[in-house]
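REQUEST ID: PR-0412
SUBMITTED BY: lab tech R.K.
PRIORITY: routine
TASK: structure prediction, single protein chain
INPUT:
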Amino acid sequence: MRVLVVVNEVVARRAVEAALQRGGFQTVGVGDGLAAWEILKRADSPRLMVLDWAMEGFDGAEILARLHAMPGRAPFHVVMTSVRTRPEDVVAALEAGADDYVTKPFHAGELRARVQVGARHLEQVDALERRIAELLRPAA
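STATUS: complete
OUTPUT:
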């Protein structure tokens, strides 16, 4: 599964990508919200994301708001990352539409495991959608 990695710091972005690639994920990395948004507007964009809270252009919360406002957008799963560690910050990210939250610096195994949870979630959603379509098909 492809993962969009949106982290503004080059070294941190490469560390995230390396951790995910070790887990078998394909990654697409960008360093700012505007570049991420250009990718996310495409129909074939990754549905699984590691998204930094604070970046140039659009921040993580703005990207989430735009994603949720897109009509017909396929389900997605977002792991928000930040140096913010207060419980209020975690709540704000989840209320903005993130599905999970990891503080930086992160443990590579934990981040990979959280992204794997997102991948399983999306696979279950896809299987459910296929089953619903199957059940709605007229009998031949």
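NOTES: The helical segments are 10-22, 33-40, 60-69, 87-95, 108-136.
REVIEWED BY: pending
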